[in-house]
Design goal:
The protein has 112 residues and is α+β, with helices and mostly antiparallel strands. A two-stranded antiparallel ribbon has the order 1-2.
């Protein structure tokens, strides 16, 4: 699953009433990519789309995670968290290296 699909699943779990435009902003992807991802998620059986009339008298869609979608989101969340933790540890190590490098370049500081 691509990160865009994961972000859409996360957003829809919190609010199935998001429009595609709102999902696009929430996931940080284009409206076209949002539409593509939604269709892929529907095809995979991870979400279900149903029509409803919204307050502006236009037909809109309600995107609801299916039980399969909830399971997949949970699995992907664990993988996403692991990856982000690895990135965090790598950045933390790089920051420490840079601090050490700066201390060497600056030399001892006067404390008076």
């Amino acid at each position: 699953m691509i990160e865009s699909e994961f972000q859409i699943l996360r957003a829809l779990e919190s609010n199935p009433n998001f429009s595609q435009r709102e999902l696009s902003k929430k996931a940080g992807i284009s409206l076209g990519k949002t539409n593509y991802c939604l269709n892929a998620l529907i095809e995979k059986g991870l979400i279900k789309a149903s029509n409803f009339k919204n307050s502006k008298s236009r037909t809109a869609y309600l995107y609801k995670l299916t039980p399969k979608g909830m399971e997949e989101k949970a699995r992907v969340t664990v993988r996403f968290l692991r990856r982000k933790m690895q990135e965090y540890e790598a950045i933390k190590a790089e920051i420490e290296e840079l601090r050490t490098e700066c201390e060497v370049l600056e030399g001892p500081r006067d404390k008076g």
